[in-house]
Every structure is written in C-alpha cells, then in structure tokens.
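Hi there, hope your week has been kind to you so far. It would help a lot if you went through both lines with me. No rush at all, and the record is pasted right below:

***
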Amino acid sequence: MRTCFLVLALVVVGPALAGEHGKEAPPVSPIVGPATPFSDMMLDVQRIQARMAKGEKAAYDEQRDRMKAIGAAVAGAGADAFKVKAERDAVIVYLLSGGMPKNIAKIAERGDFPAIERDLLRGAAGYAAGRQSDADAMLTYNPREESLRLGSQLAYAQSVLVTAKDARKAIDLLDLARLLAPGTLIEEAALRREILLVGDLRDSDRVAFLSRQYVERYGKSIYADNFVRGLSTTAVRYDLCANLTDLAKFTALLALSQPEQARSFLLAVARASVLLGRFDVASQAAAQALKTATPGSDDEARGRLYDVASRFARMPSAEAKAAFAAIAQDKLGPADRKLMSAAGYVEARLYEMPSLADYADTWREALAAAARSPDLPQDSDPAAVTIRNAAAALAAAEALGGKDAKP
C-alpha cells in the first residue's frame, strides 16, 4: 500500500520538480571524457573469452581475429593515443593476452609511456616474446595497485614467472588473479594452473576442492578436456589416488564432469594403480569407468582389462580365463596389449609349483654355509632362518615322496 502512495506521489509531484513554474528541467549533460578505443576493444576480447570459458568454440576464432585488429590499431596509432592511462593499460593487457610484441615497437621507441610504466611495457613485451630477463621486470609491479583488468592479467603472468622459484608464491598470485577477475577466462586459466601446482605439492584435498570448483564453473570450457587430461596425469604422477579414500575425494568432481572426461580420468588412474599393485583402487576406478563406456569401444576394452588384471588372482581359474578371453584385444593400444600378455602369463601359472631343481643351488649353498660355520648363531639372521626352513621343508617333501633328501 505504501508503495502505491509513493508511486502516486512521484507521478503528481514529479512534473513540479522538473523546474520552477512548471518549466521542464534541462537535459542531463553526458559525462565527457577522452575516447578509449584500445581499452574498449580489449573489453570486447574479454567478453569473447568469457564465451570461450562457457564452451563456445566459435569464440576462439573471433578472439584471434579481434586480437589481430587490435594489434594493427595499436601499431598504427600516434603518440597522443597513449596519454590516457586506460589506453596504456589496454596495451599491457593486449600483450599479456597473447598479443604480438612487434605491434608495440613504435610505442617503445617513441617513449609514449611515462618513465614509471616503461619497465612494465618492456616486461609485458618480454613475457609475450618469451624473453625471461625482460619479463622479470614486471615482478616489481603490484597487481593490487593496478586496475582490475590489468591487475588480474599481471598477477597471472607473475605467477608463471615465479613458479620455478617459489611454487607457493605462484599459487598465491593465481588466487589473486582469480579474485580480481571472477567469471573470466583468466579465472578459468588460473584455476587450471593452480590445480596442477597444488598437485605438485601432493595436496589431494585441495586438488579435489579446486577441481570441483573448476567443473562447476567451467566444466564446458573449450579447455576443459585438456584440464581433465592434465588432472589425471597429475593424479598419477603424484600418487593422489593411492587408496580408496583418496579416490573418493574426486567423486564429486567426476559426478559433475562430462562422462567422457570422468572416464578418461578413471581409466588413467586404473591403469597406473594396476602397475603399482593397488588392485582395490584399480578395480574400483575401472568399474566406474565401465558404467559410461560404449559397448565395443576402446574405452570398454581398457576398462575390462584393468578390472580383470586387478582381480584375476582372487577369481576362480575358469572365470579368470573367460574374463581375459572376453577382452577385445584389437581395441587395445600396444602398451595395454603388453599388460594383458603379462597378466595372462601370470594367470596361467598362478597355481603352478616350481620344480625342485629351481631351488637346488640355493639349497646347496645353504648346506655348504652351515658346514663351514656349524656354531654360527644363524637364528639372528632372518635370511639364514628362511633358507634353513625352506631346506627342511623341501627335505620333508622329498622324504614323503620316497626320494633321497639330498640334491
């Protein structure tokens, strides 16, 4: 009711406030400022990049064309174009976004940037060209003191530069880049990079936490597939799925991922776990991957191989042989065919007892050692105890078979 009265009052009183004696108020003068064409063009690029982060593949070509246009415009601009700070910032952002250093050659030669910003320009150009010595000049600038647009790009670039020297500082800079540019391709890239760096530190909890954030926010990004492949490589390299508890930390991430992304991760973990003898993790990861694998596909063959390879020792012999026979070997790569061959060899000889001849040399050496040192307290040597017990067991087995106990 009160809202209705307010609206009515505005309708009645509004014209009276328009000017004295019923005259209309003069139109509001627009805020006039210097034109910022380069800044506006870079803003368009960031809008295009936001579409890339949402999975729009056509935006990638648009970004490339737009960056070419900006480079040409910057290269052809006169010194007066860079008197405005926003335009100079746009040039730095252009370089840090993958722009061509040659397009700013005239700017550097003319000294269009004030002295306090020249090292930033030189550093950004060095970063874009891969010149580490020049790029390090950017490390003296504080991203928190720059505009949001420039600060986020600068923090990300600085993180790349310090990663080899100080991984934890690099992670802090990536956190800052994300904070300054939420919802942009900078945040998407910073998340991807930070997850891999945290993986290097073997912090599986934080890897899982950040990965879930990435998938929730950027799961459809045009770079998401590369991210999942990189994550699976990190998980394998740094042993982030060493047991079922660690594997479960990634459950939420995999539930939010595209089926093919989750399957790629699970198959990588399953294969590595088989090779490391972590058969419970391998079996679980393979079983989850098989839920979304297309029948008859390469992924199904891989999933079946890793599952059987992790379980055949606990399966009845006939069941194990049938499981191996059901795997489509023609769908496996060379490395997986070797893995299947090795597993099949072990399965075929799993219950095969070695011959006594295999132990003859060890037995003979043990008897000779005992003869040379009959008073040696061999019980203090675990290896000697094991050898003696084995020799006694073999002698007993031969006696039961009616054979001479001596080799």
